[in-house]
Design goal:
There is one protein chain. The chain has 110 residues and is an all-alpha fold. 83% of the residues lie in helices and 0% in strands. It has one domain. Helix 1 crosses helix 2 and helix 1 packs antiparallel against helix 5. The relative contact order is 0.19. Keywords: Membrane, Transmembrane, Transmembrane helix.
């Protein structure tokens, strides 16, 4: 196998791994909130009206993570949540960088 093909496959696999890590980070943040900060989790998980659902909780979690207000880890001062939050912020950029680099290699190979 040529080194460029190996690099191409490694970049594709790295992109997939980063996207998986992105979703794993969201899960870990939610789990740490449930375990260490149940009052804050209750605000996210329990809607003001209607029935709670997984999709609704996920959407509210996205809103909290993406809000322009002071960041959740800064408010809670929890090192584990801060670490996973940084992972959540960085991994999409790494994933897209890997995939664009793989597409560039594919384009240059033509």
């Amino acid at each position: 196998m040529s080194p460029l093909v190996a690099l191409y496959l490694l970049l594709l696999a790295g992109g997939v791994a980063c996207f998986v890590l992105y979703y794993l980070a969201q899960y870990r943040i939610a789990r740490l909130l449930r375990e260490h900060h149940p009052q804050q989790w209750k605000i996210i998980a329990e809607p003001e009206q209607g029935r709670p659902s997984g999709v609704r909780t996920w959407m509210r979690m996205q809103h909290v993570l993406r809000s322009s207000q002071p960041r959740l880890p800064q408010l809670l001062e929890d090192e584990a949540i801060t670490r996973w939050f940084r992972t959540w912020q960085v991994t999409p950029w790494l994933a897209w960088s890997c995939w664009f680099a793989a597409m560039f290699l594919q384009w240059k190979a033509r």
